[in-house]
Amino acid sequence: MLTVINVLESNRPVTPQKTGRSNRQNVNRVLWQILGLNLLVAAAKIIAGIAAGSISMVADGFHSSMDASSNVIGLVGSTIAGHPPDGNHPYGHQKYETFATLGIGLLLLLTCWNVIKSVFTRLTEGSAPEITTLSFAVMIITIILNIVVVTYERKQGRRLKSSLLLADAAHTKSDIFVSLSVLASLAAVKMGWLWMDVAVAVVIVFVVGHTGWQIIRRASDVLTDCAIIDTTLVERIALSVEGVQSCHKIRSRGTDQAAHLDLHIQVNGQMSLEQAHWLGHLTQEKLQQQLDIMDVLVHVEPVEFQDLNQQVQA
Fold first, then answer.
1. What's the total number of domains in the chain?
2. Which of 26, 169, 264, 283 is most buried by a 10 A CB count?
3. Domain that holds residue 25
4. Single residue among 198, 223, 248 that ends a domain in this structure
5. pLDDT (0 to 100) of residue 94
6. 8, part of any domain
7. Residues 231, 199 share a domain
8. Is the pLDDT score of 85 beyond 90?
9. Domain boundary at 207, 223, 239, which?
């Protein structure tokens, strides 16, 4: 006796799907707001950096422009990810958001390459930056704006459980540390330490590269269906349902916002099909409530089924 139960087909209202669409709209609204601020910050840094001839400041401006580019990618990814499941995508389109997140990481690595080229140019040409009061003012104001952006975006990312917003917040957070180092280099150059401009640019490469690698690694885990739920926790919850005698073949994948879980439970083989089916529903509902996951697939089988398989294999 085998019964396959899907949480999406159980007695659930349509409300979660509406909530999902609402979350996507909220994510997009946040991205539009952040995009405007990032464009403002990037333009200010690049213009002021070119005027001062500061390689680290211009590099930081390009870094901020990558923030804006990642917002655009995020908007595209989030919009597509919000589409409901269809015949070609029965599990939905959530991985498009992960692809967008992966794009953010790749853009960070591209930023590293741009900074490296700028450093090489400075070393070969040997020009010196001209630091003014405007340079300091631009950096201080943009740092304050970035702190506001990171705080707001990270808060919204956690509230909406959006990996895209959290990744973008991490991206912008790296921009703050880069900007602080640039500010320090401006002060050093002002005191005559011209080499500090190049040195800080090299530091930028390592900071940005590390952040990009972390984002790419997390996105790759999702795209390769890395397990996201502790199997011990799943087993403990399933066995807490009266009538479930064992639990095995536990698998999970997806993201915090769109997690999928499937497992096998074993029940008394003398149960009727209706009783076993109902027990599966109880198990799936308990897992969904306690783990707050999107999709649960419970495979119900009699205890004797495992014993029969062992005899056949022997």
1. 2
2. 283
3. 14-223
4. 223
5. 76
6. no
7. no
8. no
9. 223
The vertex-13 CA angle with 12 and 15, nearest 5°, equals 125
Average pLDDT of 278-285?
Answer: 92
The answer on 304 and 184 residing in a single domain is: no
For 28, the token pair is 């997009």
- 273 exposed, middle or buried (CB, 10 Å; 0-12, 13-18, 19+)? exposed
Residue 287 has pLDDT above 60, yes or no: yes
Q: Is residue 213 part of a domain?
A: yes
Residue 57 near residue 182, CB atoms below 8 Å: yes
Same domain? 44 vs 76: yes
pLDDT the model gives residue 42: 86
For residues 60 and 49, the answer to whether their CB atoms sit within 8 Å is: yes
Residues 44 and 159 in one domain: yes
Res 54: pLDDT: 76
Confidence check: pLDDT of 220 > 80: yes
Phi-psi region of 249 (alpha: psi -120 to 50; beta: other; left: phi over 0): left
Domain with residue 251: its CATH number is: 3.30.70.1350
The per-residue pLDDT for range 24-57, each reduced to its tens digit, is 778 788 888 888 888 888 888 888 888 877 777 7
Task: Tell me which of 217 and 187 has the higher pLDDT.
Answer: 217
HEC-encoded secondary structure of the chain: CCEEEEHHHCCCCCHHHHHHHHHHHHHHHHHHHHHHHHHHHHHHHHHHHHHHCCHHHHHHHHHHHHHHHHHHHHHHHHHHHCCCCCCCCCCCCCHHHHHHHHHHHHHHHHHHHHHHHHHHHHHHHCCCCCCCHHHHHHHHHHHHHHHHHHHHHHHHHHHHCCHHHHHHHHHHHHHHHHHHHHHHHHHHHHCCCCHHHHHHHHHHHHHHHHHHHHHHHHHHHHHCCCCCCCHHHHHHHHHCCCCCCEEEEEEEEECCCCEEEEEEEEECCCCCHHHHHHHHHHHHHHHHHHHCCCEEEEEEEEHHHHHHHHHHHC
